[in-house]
Amino acid sequence: MTITRRTMLHRIGAVGGLTAVAGAMQSMGWFGVARAASLEEMPGDLGQGRSVVVLGAGIAGLVAAFELEQRGFDVTVIEARGRVGGKAWTVRDGDRIAMQGEQDQIAHFSEGLYFNAGPARLPSFHQGILGYAKRFGVPLEVEVNSSRSAYLVAKNGNKLRMRTAINDMRGHVSELLAKAVNQGALDSALSMDEKAKLLPFLKAYGDLQGDYAFKGTTRSGFRTGPGAGVSSFETANAPVPLADLLANEQLAMMGFEDNLYMQATMFQPVGGMDQISLGIERHLKKRAVLDAEVLRIRQLESGVEIAWIDKSSGAARIMRADYCVCTIPFPVLAGIEANFAAPVASAIASVVYEDSNKVAFEAPRFWERDQIYGGLTFVGGETSLIWYPSWGLHEDRGMIVGCYSSGEPGKAFARRPMAEQIAMARAAIDSVHPGHGADCSAPLVVNWRKIPYSLGPWPNWIPGVRNRGEHPMTDTPAFRLLNQPDGRIFFASAALSQTPGWQEGALQSAHATVAALVDQMRARALAEPRVRAAAA
Amino acid sequence: MTITRRTMLHRIGAVGGLTAVAGAMQSMGWFGVARAASLEEMPGDLGQGRSVVVLGAGIAGLVAAFELEQRGFDVTVIEARGRVGGKAWTVRDGDRIAMQGEQDQIAHFSEGLYFNAGPARLPSFHQGILGYAKRFGVPLEVEVNSSRSAYLVAKNGNKLRMRTAINDMRGHVSELLAKAVNQGALDSALSMDEKAKLLPFLKAYGDLQGDYAFKGTTRSGFRTGPGAGVSSFETANAPVPLADLLANEQLAMMGFEDNLYMQATMFQPVGGMDQISLGIERHLKKRAVLDAEVLRIRQLESGVEIAWIDKSSGAARIMRADYCVCTIPFPVLAGIEANFAAPVASAIASVVYEDSNKVAFEAPRFWERDQIYGGLTFVGGETSLIWYPSWGLHEDRGMIVGCYSSGEPGKAFARRPMAEQIAMARAAIDSVHPGHGADCSAPLVVNWRKIPYSLGPWPNWIPGVRNRGEHPMTDTPAFRLLNQPDGRIFFASAALSQTPGWQEGALQSAHATVAALVDQMRARALAEPRVRAAAA
């Protein structure tokens, strides 16, 4: 059947050219942007004699480059920064942070400390990126995304331990539901059997007493802890009243840990998130060209031409290739001279990027004295949360993130002077850990909107609308268009995936792009036998 | 005031002797078994000229020895095994497991693998044991006690992912409670304000729709996962029906992670639990005497005399000391010749120990292909659970615990022939990970009741009764009596704490014992001025 389809496509190509073949392939389900499953089936010499220039050495660019190289393509990666990894950026002592409109910051960290300015956690189900880490021998360690010792902090400053919020609330919910069930209020919703089983479940679920009353639980912490001998037996605190729990504006954030993207077990690379990018790049046959800022992208009759400047020497360079995989963030790409098709150019210009900010400090590990080891404290507002380090346990010093915000609060935050941002992050830490704001030194601010070559963390395809998974909705005409190649130029980016804020999205987009590029190459070979002949 | 009290005690001693002084001190709250808080106040030369023999080099013995040495006592630790650590036992390749009534087992593990046969996790609030790990530079890593990818397995073999059980159940509970609230069924239990805040909370808590209906949630996993481009948008599965969830006998085990002793963040020492014991022992001035089996314990007029046998040479030894700290498990101690006071001897003989079993295998890490990284799968029955390793992520092979059971099911399990225990643990793994039971090799069985020098994992002071924290109740006359010294012999053990199953309990008991020993020494000095004079 393959032969029949090939033969037919060949005939379509002879008559109607590439577009007709592509259309026919698409209608046969043989052409598309999401062919990742077929990567394994592609022979290693598939791309022989074909060249690809990849613009950008973030995860999307590196993954595309690696997978294309593995299939025989001659790949050149061009990266504007002096490092690979893109937003998967680990800041270490001595590193410089340049932001548009701000004074440069230099990291002054104690030995061994680092700060993941971009992505900092990997969920269990992100098997693509975990798989690359495994394949390239990048050691991972557990990232503690949820600690029962962390806090939910109300606007009025009242704070609840996560364990208290979760377990006292579950106690109240269980007590109330048991009451309703026992009153017969839910008899029409529950079968006799469900009712009979639900009640003992609720007793265990909420740690209720024999009469289904919630009188407090040691799950929320001890009033008196257990000790040796008969001096101290464990007892529970009285429950926090329901009204007091509900008054905490952050209460629902207790469920953050059950967002699928945030569920245990989560990971981080040992030593910094950039270890994954470095691991992939280390396995490229041709290493990435760094400090190479793209000036112009041109589609030619039979290939692409990229003009770039070598930032270290100032020399202008031009290179040609058969195909281009462009991973440059759209706000950056919109400023680069290019002869994209008009609808593509206007789609690129239309993409709105979000704000995202992190403010990090170095500090003595005062949070450990409060029995907090990793996890998140939710404070809301423009600084949103405090993120404790999952590594370096029991060492003298560690990194604490005093702000990680995005959305509208993040936008407002990024507009503030840097000194004010630092003061707000420090104050947030101090409000949760009184007296310790002053212990936080070596502040670093990252406002992703101001970071050159990024100009934002991720797009919001439908501004203001987020889907259930906390990720921007993506299914818009511009999103669909940019997920198609413009001739020989293919766009790849986490921005073009369903999860624009995750490295896995970048990887999925890269895989899809490799598949689409191969499809187009095959279509061209069928449509233009002379190309195939020339390449043979 | 101290001087007044001292003077008074001195006078009491002159008239009534040690017992009268001790009684007076106790009534002044100056004597007892729980004086851990005062350890810091004790001067470093407090015990100068006094000797203590510590029987047993588990956590209780090592901690007591270290703290006594730090206060100037001359301490000798006598340990029957060829290693320190007691039940904090890490088995490595080549190690021999001897059990009473069973053939010896030899561990045959691949390089770097180990098995914590006893305790294997440290909760955040166990600041004593964490503090020793920090003090002695024992590196810790996160122990993943709860993974949303693990399973709850019903008797009929149906299995629920932890994420599905937790989030679908929360969805149903929220929907039902919202329904009752909206019907007004709980109007007498809720204020208007509580009602107004509870409804939106429940919507977030259960991931309900606008009409408070639960239609499934991506928190429970994807029906279709998010991808690149427009090929795949994330969608949720339909919820598991409430009746199906309630039919799973293990359903309530979803709450295991909120038992305070099991809450994130939890830790394990890098390389094995014995690293903590080894770290303490390394810091003793006089290292523990190993392979020294105690034969006889005698209280003398003015000290204690211990007879023991050097197992390596067979030579009998006798040593004397001013005091003895005895950490020998009570079922073992009951078989040792001693001149304890009659009520003490009968209390020792009366202590009933529990059963606890672990069956470990080495295997290729098939669970990682199922996106399980650490955590517990609950299967119930005699094997109880499957425990996945928190370390060695992405390596070829790892240790999997196919049974960790105690209580009545554990007792029944331990009675089975070893081959049957191994077959049952393997079958449990195979039922959850079909086809992979056969991948499990190098089985090791530990039935703690059969382990020499332990004869059980922990006591059950009131057999059959467990408290809310899942720990045996401890406040019995025997427990109280053994928490008092018998003359110059002090008992210390996790068994004498409120948490007999935890190393923290052993540490707390050791601290309390050091304080009690110091109290008695002071009382003796006051009651018998000649002793003080002789020691000066």
From TrEMBL, chains A, B:
Per UniProt, the keywords (alphabetical) are: Auxin biosynthesis
**InterPro entries listed in its UniProt record:** Amino_oxidase (IPR002937), FAD/NAD-bd_sf (IPR036188), Flavin_monoamine_oxidase (IPR050281), TAT_signal (IPR006311)
Q: Which reaction does it catalyse?
A: L-tryptophan + O2 = indole-3-acetamide + CO2 + H2O
* Source superkingdom: Bacteria
Annotated metabolic or biological route of this protein: Plant hormone metabolism; auxin biosynthesis
EC id = 1.13.12.3
Q: Which residue numbers delimit the Amine oxidase domain? A: 59-517
Q: Which GO terms describe its molecular function?
A: L-amino-acid oxidase activity; tryptophan 2-monooxygenase activity
- Sorted alphabetically, which Pfam families does this protein's record hold? Amino_oxidase
Keyword Mitochondrion set for record: no
A biological-process GO annotation: amino acid catabolic process
Q: Which family does it belong to?
A: Belongs to the tryptophan 2-monooxygenase family.
State the protein's name. Answer: Tryptophan 2-monooxygenase
Taxonomy-wise, where does this protein's organism fall, top ranks first? Bacteria, Pseudomonadati, Pseudomonadota, Alphaproteobacteria, Sphingomonadales
